[in-house]
Write a structure and sequence with these properties.
mainly beta
Length: about 70
C-alpha cells in the first residue's frame, strides 16, 4: 500500500494507472478535465479541459484513446 499526493480542488470521476502514470477524469461544473498525473509528485504533466457545457464523469482507455 502506498500514499500519493492528490489535489483537493477536484472530484475524481474516473481513474486508472497505465505505463507508470495516473489518468484522472474530474467532474466539476464548468471546469471538468482529463489529466495525466505523475504519481511521484501528484502534479499534472498533461491536461485537457472539457468545454464548460460538459461535465466529466468516468473514463477508460481503449486502444490509443481515453
Amino acid at each position: 500500500m502506498a500514499k500519493y499526493p492528490h489535489s483537493t480542488e477536484s472530484y475524481t470521476e474516473g481513474f486508472f494507472y497505465l505505463n507508470g502514470m495516473f489518468y484522472e477524469g474530474t467532474g466539476i461544473n464548468g471546469r471538468s478535465a482529463v489529466m495525466v498525473i505523475d504519481p511521484k509528485t501528484g502534479r499534472s504533466v498533461q491536461r485537457r479541459d472539457l468545454p464548460a457545457e460538459y461535465f466529466g464523469e468516468g473514463m477508460s482507455t481503449g486502444a490509443e484513446y481515453l
